[in-house]
Amino acid sequence: MIAKIIPIKSVRKSNYSALIQYLTDPQDKSERISQIKVSNCYSDDLTAGLLEIQNTQEMNTRARSDKTCHLVLSFPEGERLSLSDLNTIEERFCDALGFNGHQRISVIHDDTNNLHMHIAINKIHPRTLTIHNPYYDFIKVAKLCEQIEQEYGLTTVNHETVS
Q1: CA-to-CA distance for 52 and 43, rounded, in angstroms?
Q2: What is the pLDDT of residues 29-71, one digit of tens each?
Q3: Structural domains counted in the chain
């Protein structure tokens, strides 16, 4: 499996709402999205969760860096896991990066040969309203990928642990 944190493409900060709109757009495909999951919000409803996350981000006026972490988990062609396993893997990545308790919206796309999951994480903690920027995230992500490949019998991929 490949896990990658997607950096913002411009100097401006990311727009959480625009990211979720893109991730949840069916793009005229009948089976693009397998699951949309809202975590650590008061509601499991997508619209309510999105508003809550945006409000949380707006309450932090001190942070100068991007307030959103966009993580993509991609599996080799033909490898499929159950939604339960995918949800467990999502939780493990968020915990490994220090985002335990942070609000997030996850979208599983099943419209290509490679099953993949997008995780849009609010870097602003909902209770403390402080930003979390993980250090050496690429090393943590690579090590966890290797563990998950072994545990779930997935194809082994060479993971770069050097930036």
Answers
A1: 9
A2: 777 899 999 999 999 999 999 999 999 999 999 988 899 999 9
A3: 1
Residues 98-133 have pLDDT tens digits of 999 999 999 999 878 889 999 999 999 999 999 999
Give the SS3 label for residue 81: coil
Model-level pTM? 0.92
Which domain CATH number covers 17?
3.30.930.30
Cα 29–Cα 5–Cα 68 angle in degrees, nearest 5:
85
Which residue range is the domain that position 40 belongs to?
Answer: 2-152
DSSP-derived secondary structure letter, 44: S
| CA–CA dist 128, 147 (Å, integer) | 31
Distance CA 93, CA 77 (A): 21
